[in-house]
């Protein structure tokens, strides 16, 4: 048996944000086989089953934890530190003062901390920006360049979630709605598409049953949406689901419709049909069957357009 260390064992990757950001950083994670990844407790859930990750360390963005992170970077064996999107000031500052000689940051306002420049990524999707960063880190062609983020829940998780939600996941696939922010720990700031429009989509879709995913701070939006749906409807609390379990529900759905947030990006990463209802500067999820419905004013965006997009994508899938 070879005792050689993984090629990127001396690389530290500092992930900012939660589940959504960890998924968008997958190009960097996959390129750096054996790297140590520092991430939030939520984000660590996306690393399970990602064979390229050498070690994961939970960190939180509170002062004591950030000081501890600086100490780990300064005392560890690292010769390279990488900060994918979003490159937050606090993480860039820690990388700068870590004394690690090679520092790579996704291009943007905080790339002052980088020891070398990465090709600009203006106007690119964050996943595409992280592809460029991955190429710079790895100095070699990537077989997976251009691929969207992926989550593949194990069969055991699929069986468990199907058994737990047998009334909704058995038979015809349900429609999954995210009327709130769909985040594990952080709520959505800013306006939402009206709950009654989500209810209209649910009632007029071909799905026989509906599952509402409720994230942090989503209780009111979920409650108002549920009140307008006439079909059998269940509410699943993200706080009671792992990332893999939420992925399994999404993968077994007719479609997942909602706002930019953790759960919508998880759904897209499973290959599920996803309709993202967004307004700039939201980030549309990248996926094989992800479609973005961009709006200027949520109150003026009718349910009819979402139903038409759902029908059109269903026709595309039937001929694929």
Identify the notable features of this structure and list them briefly.
320 residues; alpha/beta; 6-stranded parallel beta sheet; 5-stranded parallel beta sheet; elongated
Q: Total number of β-strand segments? A: 11
Q: What kind of sheet is the major sheet?
A: 6 strands, parallel
Q: Strand fraction band? A: 15-25%
Q: What's the gyration radius in Å?
A: 20 Å
Q: From N to C, what is the helix and strand string?
A: EHHEHEHEHEHHHEHEHEHEHEEH
**What structural class do you assign from the helix and strand content?**
alpha/beta
- List low-confidence stretches: none
Molecular shape: elongated
What is the helix content? 25-40%
How far from one another are the termini? 44 Å
Strand order of the largest sheet: 8-7-6-9-10-11
Query: So how many helices?
Result: 13
Mean pLDDT, as a whole number? 90
Describe this structure in words.
- There is one protein chain.
- This protein has 320 residues and is of the alpha/beta class.
- The protein has helices at residues 19-24, 26-31, 41-44, 63-75, 89-97, 126-138, 155-164, 166-169, 195-204, 219-227, 243-251, 262-269, 303-319, and strands spanning 11-14, 35-39, 53-58, 80-83, 102-105, 175-178, 210-214, 233-237, 255-258, 274-278, 290-294.
- The strands form two sheets. It has a six-stranded parallel beta sheet, with helices on both faces.
- α4 (63-75) runs parallel beside α5 (89-97) and α9 (195-204) crosses α10.
- The termini are far apart.
- The mean pLDDT is 90.
């Amino acid at each position: 048996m070879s005792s050689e260390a993984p090629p990127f064992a001396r690389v530290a990757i500092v992930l900012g944000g939660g589940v959504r950001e960890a998924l968008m950083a997958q190009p960097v994670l996959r390129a750096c086989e054996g790297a140590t990844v520092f991430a939030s407790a939520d984000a660590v859930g996306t690393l399970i089953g990602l064979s390229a990750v050498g070690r994961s360390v939970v960190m939180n963005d509170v002062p004591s934890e950030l000081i501890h992170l600086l100490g780990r970077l300064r005392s560890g064996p690292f010769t390279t530190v990488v900060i994918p999107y979003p490159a937050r000031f606090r993480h860039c500052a820690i990388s700068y003062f870590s004394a690690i000689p090679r520092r790579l940051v996704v291009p943007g306002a905080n790339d002052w901390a980088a020891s070398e420049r990465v090709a600009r990524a203006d106007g690119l999707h964050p996943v595409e920006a992280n592809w460029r960063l991955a190429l710079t880190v790895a100095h070699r062609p990537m077989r997976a360049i251009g691929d969207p983020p992926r989550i593949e829940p194990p069969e055991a998780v699929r069986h468990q979630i199907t058994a737990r939600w047998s009334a909704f996941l058995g038979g015809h696939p349900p429609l999954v709605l995210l009327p709130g922010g769909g985040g594990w720990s952080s709520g959505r700031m800013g306006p939402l598409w009206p709950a009654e429009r989500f209810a209209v989509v649910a009632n007029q879709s071909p799905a026989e049953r509906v599952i509402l995913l409720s994230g942090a701070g989503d209780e009111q939006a979920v409650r108002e949406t549920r009140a307008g749906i006439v079909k059998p409807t269940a509410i699943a609390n993200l706080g009671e689901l792992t990332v893999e379990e939420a992925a399994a529900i999404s993968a077994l759905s007719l479609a997942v419709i909602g706002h930019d947030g953790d759960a919508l990006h998880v759904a897209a990463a499973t290959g599920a049909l996803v309709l993202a209802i967004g307004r700039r500067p939201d980030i549309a999820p990248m996926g094989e069957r992800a479609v973005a419905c961009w709006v200027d004013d949520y109150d003026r965006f009718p349910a009819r357009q979402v139903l038409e997009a759902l029908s059109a994508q269903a026709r595309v899938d039937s001929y694929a």
